[in-house]
């Protein structure tokens, strides 16, 4: 069957979160707090190792007291906040309010940058009459990020784990996305950066294409092959 719909993951696929250094620096600035450059670099390094920045580096270790909430963090807004603020609290910060401030900062549209070819690919799919959906493991509403960057008009549907109570690779999330667009899974391509989570779409019958989760400047054209996959003639 020909590909008539493309589903995209969010973080690491269409958008990339700011660096841990920039994340911490922005929150300190907003709170009128300061650290020396050395202190900031050390603290940011510890937050990165803890995995405290959603969309940033994965935790090197999940503390035992957070293991349960971490495993289901993307199924509920409160669990998501608890998991990531819990990881951040593994790192001493000068004020207690900074933990929630850091979490709030990562949801701000300004904290996210689209990959250089994302707009070109989304517009190219629109020109081809291909439906576009976003399927994300996430604990908050990412739609404002798409609106702020001018991408919302290029997306037909959003299927977000916290709104459905299930997270990828559970096929129920992909099924909801396909049904929301009225598509047979065999007509759908899932594009993501996580082999396990996004690869779950294959169990439903979707085609799957992976990109590398890299900083924006290191992946200028990682999404462009998607247009070729859509243009390809279906197998007889």
Automatic annotation (TrEMBL):
Keyword list, A-Z: Hydrolase
Presence of keyword Glycosyltransferase: no
Keyword Nucleus: no
Molecular function, one GO term: hydrolase activity
Origin: domain of life: Bacteria
Protein name: HAD family hydrolase
